[in-house]
Amino acid sequence: MKKILLLTTGGTIACEPTADGLVPALDGATLIKMVPGLSGLCDITSQEILNLDSSNIEPVHWQLLARALEKNYFDFDGFVITHGTDTLAYTAAALSWMLQHLQKPVVLTGAQQPITMPNSDAQANLQHAFAAACANVPGVMVVFGNKIIGGSQAQKMYTESRDAFVSVNAESWADITQTGICWRPRLMQQVARVQAAPQFGFKVLSALEPRVALIKLIPGLDPGIIDYYLAQGYKGLVLEGFGAGGVPNGHRNWLPKLEKAVQAGVRIVCATQCVYEGVNLHKYPIGTWAARAGAKSAGLLTTEAAVTKLMWELANTK
């Protein structure tokens, strides 16, 4: 049987009701017991890493997970991480950058309802997550609502629906049906190439620069907000703009402040508020001039992936 390590971090899946609402309380052993089918699927060990509502997850917690994976990497065939849904996409994206040359599955999952509630989605998501962890498909992935999504492409789109996550600007890795996991043929071709290539050796680059901010542009927003982040010592800014990206250059011209930040050594990344089809800084002058001033394009990355990649790059590249 495959040996799978379960790392728990809290989240709705592990919650119990209190007078103030749902609070994470259940440990990994309890979660495993509540999904009877898991006992015949694989040999499971559990470790409690955190016990948080995922809205309280921070970069330091991503580093804790990365180090736990590094410590246990050679003792297990795959890994499952239970996590609250609200920031699960950030954690999945961050791990995608930190876990270099990953040759094993790292599967994140959670639930929209606690596992103790009748008709919860937790049991199915856990069952599917462990099945994916046993499947010899390497990489960070999100298993949720009968889909498997690449870790850097997942985004939460619904607050209540069981099908909460979508794969943005990329095919999902697999669909989960009554007959099992249907992996995409193109993905399996990529997996075959990875497995046939020389192995470079797994390593964890867990350093992150937390002084990264996301600025969501709205019509009329004063570009002087950049001065605040400069004064606070921020090292990176993701500007979530309109349409194909870029920054306003009319009455409230963002370009002088953008240039000032770049000259001060701050990395600027232009993202978009549109979910699909990404950024094209060369389509309009607002993007062309931003690129000339030193801004970089987020391309097809989700906001979560763009933010976490910038944190990782600032700490690991010069």
Q: Secondary structure elements and their pairing?
A:
Elements: E1 3-10, E2 15-18, E3 21-24, H1 28-33, E4 43-52, H2 59-72, E5 78-82, H3 88-98, E6 99-100, E7 105-109, H4 122-133, E8 139-144, E9 147-150, E10 154-156, E11 165-167, E12 174-177, E13 180-183, H5 185-196, E14 203-204, E15 212-216, H6 225-231, E16 236-241, H7 255-263, E17 267-272, H8 285-292, E18 296-297, H9 303-316
Parallel strand pairs: 1-4, 1-5, 5-7, 7-8, 15-16, 16-17, 17-18
Antiparallel strand pairs: 2-3, 6-14, 8-9, 9-12, 10-11, 12-13
Would you mind describing this structure in some detail?
This protein is an alpha/beta fold. The protein folds into two domains: 202 residues, L-asparaginase, N-terminal domain (Rossmann fold), CATH 3.40.50.1170; 105 residues, Rossmann fold. Helices cover 29% and strands 26% of the residues. The protein is built from nine helices and 18 strands. It has an eight-stranded mixed beta sheet with strand order 4-1-5-7-8-9-12-13, sandwiched between helices. A four-stranded parallel beta sheet has the order 15-16-17-18, with helices on both faces. The longest helix is centred in the first third of the chain and has 14 residues. The protein is globular. The termini are far apart. The model has no long low-confidence stretch (mean pLDDT 95).
